[in-house]
Structures are given as C-alpha cells and as structure tokens.
Design brief:
CATH superfamily of the largest domain: Dihydrodipicolinate Reductase, domain 2
CATH topology of the largest domain: Dihydrodipicolinate Reductase, domain 2
Radius of gyration: 20 Å
CATH architecture of the largest domain: 2-Layer Sandwich
Shape: globular
Structural class: alpha/beta
Strand content: 25-35%
Largest sheet: 7 strands, parallel
Strand order of the largest sheet: 3-2-1-4-5-6-15
Distance between the termini: 51 Å
Length: about 375
C-alpha cells in the first residue's frame, strides 16, 4: 500500500520514513516537500520503497494532484497553522485517509470543523497523533479508568533549556537563517490567549495571568502557564464527564522562560509574527551563546496529573511516558492501523476517539529496539489526598 509522507525532508519526516519502510504492508513511500536535494538524499537513504515528490503543501490544488492514488497521507510537516488545514482539505477532496502530528489547539479546532465533509468522503482523519498530543491522549483514557469520577485532568509539559535541539537549531539559524517549525510552535503555543476547559465549559485565558506550580514525577518543581495544545479541546468532547482539562508548560531555567514569554507577548499584542518572534528568540540566543547555551538540561518531559474520586476517596493519579523514542512512531502506528483497516470510524477525530490505549501502546512498543521491547511504555503512581 502507498503512503504520501508530507514533510519528508524534515526531522520528524525522516524518522517516519524509516519506520514506514520497515512495514511489509507499505510498498511505496512518496517523500513530499519543497527541498528537492534533501528529499532525494533521504529517499536514497530509505531505500527502494521511497521516492521524492516536490510540492508546496500550502498549494492545496497542487497537493491534491500529488495525492493521486495514495492510500493514506501522513503529515509530519510544519509550521502547523500553515500546512495542516490545506493538507487535510486536499486529502478529503481526494477521498484519501489522513493522519498528522498536529500540536496546535487553534488549528485543531478548525480541523474538527471538517468532520462532516470527511464523513461524506468516507475518510478517516486522525489529528494530533504523536507523542503529545497523541500518546498523552491515550494515557488520559487510562487515567480516567482509575476513578469512579474525575475532577481534573492536567497535561504537564516541562521544556528544560538549553537542550541539544536548541543548540542544533541555533547553529542552523546562524548558518542559513532557517527558523525550525518546532520552535515556532513553542512560541505560538505560549502566546495568548489559550482556550482551557473549566467547570464544564471552554474559556479563554491569558497564560501569564494563570500560572500554576507543577511537580514532575522526579519531584522537581517549576512555574507553568496555560499552553494552547489540542488536548484541552478534544478530551472534553470524547471523554465526557471531566469538568476541568488543561495543558500547562514550564520552561526552565527562569531566564530562558522569561526570554520565550517576552517574544510570545509580542505575538499576542500583534507586534510580531510567529516566525519573526521565533527568529528574534533564536537570534538572541545566537548572539550570546556563552550565556544561553551553557550547561546541560534534560530536554522535554510530559506527564498527566489527574484528580478524582474512587470508592469515596479522593486521589491524584500521575502517569508519564518513559519509552517512546520518537514522536514519529505513534504517527506511523496510526497510519499502519488505517492501512490494515483497523480504524472503522469516518470523519475527523483525535486519537482518543479511534484507539484503545493498551493495544496501541503494545504496537508502539514493538517499534522499539529489541532490548527495550519488554520494558513498560509508561509509569504511574497514585497518592490519596
């Protein structure tokens, strides 16, 4: 079966192509994007199953033509607010199944509005199917099962800087001026306002006015702010009865957090575009690497903090992934399940509307190196309050 991989020249596309090529069910992988040289090199690296396709994803008509008779479109491209909607609309127009890594809540809301059109075309489109959102959504399903009644689900993210990716992307910015989409997403998602689900309804909040203190599974603490991820948009729709759902992001150390939020405020006030604010952030770091890039940090962590009632007792359940490898793996697993005919719904859906957590986790685990396949995918703890 044939897969069109959008963002084939990018970081996430690289890993997705490798994992797709390992599957016997995948016979052809079209690596699509704008960088012809990188795409051709990557196709050569992936092997005989892969070939390159030059297309600007934002050109919806051209993209629809490129989709042709592919069986599924796998979207690992960014920036998300530029490429997710045209890619989804083109896929629906061609009657081709679709999945993506989308982590922008505002774009996810617009994607969900295409649900009825996808149903008419007999298309399943799974949005936000990566590490987070994606694995996090399925962990939320597991968390809800721990209680008779859930009061709150909080998705917690900790970005400890500098990490290796920041150093790598600052170096790329110095050399070529290229602004990586992942850092644009960070700036976009911390810029206000953010939509959160409180007391059974959605409300808009200014992130900087609603800070919370979070404690990681390793007992480190940090100040976090509302983050415009999709989980607080989709979870209330598909896990009914949970009155409070939020996503919060902490960035450490504090001076790096201040730098990111200072640029994000310019986006909020309309004084800068997302790309220009990210460029300013990277330029500041590049101009004084001894200050901003010194030391080491742990990178990206994610966990869920869930409060609820069980047998008359109030408790806090915490769970966190410990063995994913790449956000591209859950994306590829979703695509393979679509190709095998294991996804029976039609329309635009988040992961929690399409998959049972444990079978999905088991397949993700089988994508891990052999020495890690028997290890748990996530860990959990319960504290009674």
């Amino acid at each position: 079966m044939r897969v069109l991989l959008l963002g084939g020249s990018g970081r996430f596309g690289e890993y997705a192509a490798i994992y797709l090529a390992k599957s016997d069910i995948v016979t052809d992988i079209g690596l699509a994007g704008r960088n012809e040289a990188v795409l051709k090199r990557r196709a050569s690296e992936v092997g005989d199953k892969a070939h390159s396709i030059i297309v600007d994803i934002r050109d919806e008509g051209r993209l629809a033509s490129a989709i042709g008779d592919y069986d599924v479109v796998v979207n690992a491209a960014g920036p998300e607010w530029e490429v997710l909607l045209p890619a989804l609309r083109a896929s629906i127009k061609k009657g081709t199944h679709y999945c993506d890594l989308g982590a922008d809540g505002r774009t996810a809301e617009k994607q969900l509005e295409l649900d009825s059109l996808a149903k008419k075309q007999n298309v399943v489109a799974i949005i936000g199917m990566g590490y987070d959102p994606g694995i996090g959504n399925l962990l939320a399903m597991q968390a809800v099962k721990q209680f008779d009644r859930v009061e709150e689900i909080m998705f917690c993210y900790l970005l400890a800087l500098p990490d290796d990716l920041l150093k790598e992307d600052v170096d790329m910015f110095r050399k070529s001026g290229k602004v990586d989409p992942s850092w644009q997403l960070v700036l976009n998602n911390v810029a206000g306002p953010a939509r959160v689900y409180r007391n059974g309804s959605w409300t808009m909040v200014d992130p900087l006015d609603h800070s919370v203190e979070i404690k990681s599974p390793g007992n480190s603490t940090a100040t976090a702010y509302p983050d415009a991820n999709p989980e607080q948009i989709t979870i209330p729709r598909y896990l009914p009865g949970v009155p409070n759902v939020s996503c919060v992001l902490a960035i450490t150390p504090p001076d790096m957090s201040e730098l990111v939020h200072r640029q994000a405020e310019k986006i909020t006030r309309g004084e800068s575009t997302i790309k220009d604010a990210t460029r300013s952030f990277l330029n500041t770091v590049a101009e004084d690497p001894d200050r901003w890039l010194k030391g080491s940090a742990s990178g990206w962590d994610m966990w869920l903090s869930v409060i609820g009632m069980k047998n008359g007792r109030r408790g806090r359940y915490t769970c966190w992934p410990v063995r994913i490898g790449s956000t591209s793996i859950p994306l590829v697993v979703a695509a393979l399940k679509i190709l095998r005919g294991e996804v029976h719904v039609r329309g635009v859906f988040p992961p929690e509307a399409c998959f049972e957590p444990m079978p999905f986790f088991e397949e993700v685990g089988r994508c891990m190196p052999a020495e890690d396949q028997d290890k748990p995918l996530y860990r959990e703890s319960m504290t009674w309050m």
